Amino acid sequence: MSLEGFITQAVSPWMSEEGPDSDIVLSSRIRLARNFQDYKFPTLYSHDEAKAIILKVQEILQQTAFEKFGQMELLKMDELQPLQKRVLMEKHLISPNLADDSTHGACVLTVNEEVSIMLNEEDHLRIQCLFPGLQLSEALEAANEIDDWLEDHIQYAFNEKKGYLTSCPTNVGTGLRASVMMHLPGLILTHQINRIIPAINQLGLVVRGIYGEGSEALGNIFQISNQITLGKSEEDIVEDLKSVVSQLISQERSAREALVKTSHIQLEDRVFRSYGVLSNSRIIESKEAARCLSDVRLGIDIGFIEDMSKNILNELMILTQPGFLQQYAGGPLRPNERDILRASVIRERLKMENDKSQN
């Protein structure tokens, strides 16, 4: 796939697939941090060393193929426009840190965008696999296959006692970050989330917003991931996270059932008011759009709204981000112009969904 393909389609191909518990778990992600043995970490390396790392990965891609994951494309950050990098970040294909890099970074993407390998971010390599729904074990298996393939050609920085060596001490050991993206409107509306988050933190997990550390939980979407990478196996880290996520799924479903039982008409009114706002607004800010999209997705999941795809939340949450809107417009937009275009894009997408359901 060309760069244009990666930045013009809002929904990655893997996002269109149905995953386990996808009414609540939007996606599962595994990320492995790895470093070359004979190079300084990115905090200290030279420009030439950074270039050598990219060249080495290019050589691997040219010399070998990984048929299971299909064609892979290498994109260099210094060859991309700021807007193009922002779009890749909004799709979770690269991190905000890599998007800010203008000289040393690169990424390798598969055609279906299930696999992303970031080069010269906080570590030399960040191997990322994304799956729909609750599929942490499947994502770990895929990430390990990519890891083994690269390790056939790269000498990793590894210590027998400490495990994989990384720029940040919190990643030393397995180098593994496992995370899930969860839609939790029921726990928000029943005011349970404020007591649940501290309990999750005490279990060695962390709860963040949609774009990770320092970001907001827009549209009632939370990212839950492990904090501990040393002293546990990859499988144990994943199983611990799955256990907590399974409990959250159960609590969210119970919260939704309680809302339908005790506040049915109020909840239905909220859902359809939000649908009305999205269907008719001529100007809408990103936070309001995210809140309304969350309400509509909840309405789809509990059966208030029929004949509408669940993927509409995934798609519009990305399509209405600042980078995508400006990509769609063909250039920079002022905040007010983005709010106007956002409203127009949402109206058009909902109209398409309505026309499809009537045919």
Q: Write out the strand line-up for the largest beta sheet, numbering strands in chain order.
A: 2-3-4-5-1-8-10-9
Approximately how much beta-strand content do the residues carry? Answer: 15-25%
**What share of the residues lie within helices?**
40-55%
Helical segment count: 13
Number of distinct beta strands:
10
Q: What are the secondary-structure elements, in order, as H or E?
A: HEHEHHEEEHEEEHHEEHHHHHH
Mean pLDDT: 89
Structural class: alpha+beta
Distance between the termini: 32 Å
Topology:
Layout: H1 3-8, E1 25-34, H2 47-63, E2 72-76, H3 82-90, H4 96-100, E3 106-110, E4 115-119, E5 125-132, H5 136-151, E6 158-159, E7 163-164, E8 176-183, H6 185-189, H7 193-202, E9 205-208, E10 221-226, H8 234-262, H9 264-280, H10 286-301, H11 311-319, H12 322-329, H13 335-358
Antiparallel strand pairs: 1-5, 1-8, 2-3, 3-4, 4-5, 6-7, 8-10, 9-10
Short summary of the structure?
With 359 residues, the protein is an alpha+beta fold. The protein contains 13 helices and ten strands.
Describe this protein's structure:
By secondary structure, the protein is an alpha+beta fold. The strands form 2 sheets. The chain has an 8-stranded antiparallel sheet, covered by helices on one side. Strands 6-7 form a two-stranded antiparallel ribbon. A hairpin with a 3-residue loop joins strand 6 and strand 7. The longest helix has 29 residues. The two termini are 32 Å apart.
